[in-house]
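This part of the workshop introduces the protein records we will be handling. A record pairs a protein's sequence with a compact description of its fold. Comparing a sequence with its tokens is the quickest way to learn the format. To make this concrete, we reproduce a full record directly below:
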Amino acid sequence: MISSVIQPLKSFIKKYHLEAFVDVALFMGILLFFHFLYRALISDIYAVQILDNSREWLAYKVFLASEWFLHTFNVKVTTFEEFTIDGRVWKNLIYYPEGNGYVAVNRACSGMKQFYQWIILMLLYPGPWKHKLWFIPMGLGIVHLVNIGRIVGMTFVTINLPQHWDFIHDWIMRPFFYVVMFMLWAWWNDKFRHAKKAKVSGQ
């Protein structure tokens, strides 16, 4: 029964050269699957505790790396591991005293969700496992570097374009995570998933 449906579908995809669209649909489907999985985990108290601890740890690492970069290049900001503003305690704060602006590297800025997304995407997406063993950690490293760059970039926005902070944060920096993951996935899809097929068809 299932094969009677799958085989005509495969023939249709091949006939109209829809392989690329199927790949993109699979990519988006896996990310959506994770989105709902993540929301389900957030609703579980025990899972929330584990997620919060891991996000807090990673946020601190992102803060330290961003702090190193900003101080190395003599950017005029002050950093605090803990700081109180208007009675609210902030952790991992990058403060710009001249403009009274700041970037707080909290748990939501840790990049942990994107870590999980990348891992699940690569575990579920087809391809040779011998390459996944190094491609997944490499992707995590790139996502982490992108996040550090995002925090540093938002610090420069705080200094130079504070009036556009919300727009740049929500519509440029946040989606950039997914642009990078899409580029990594496209690389994987081209060089590893379809490489064997291309080699066989070229012989």
User: Anything to note?
Assistant: The beta strands are 78-85, 88-96, 101-104. The two ends are 34 Å apart (CA to CA).
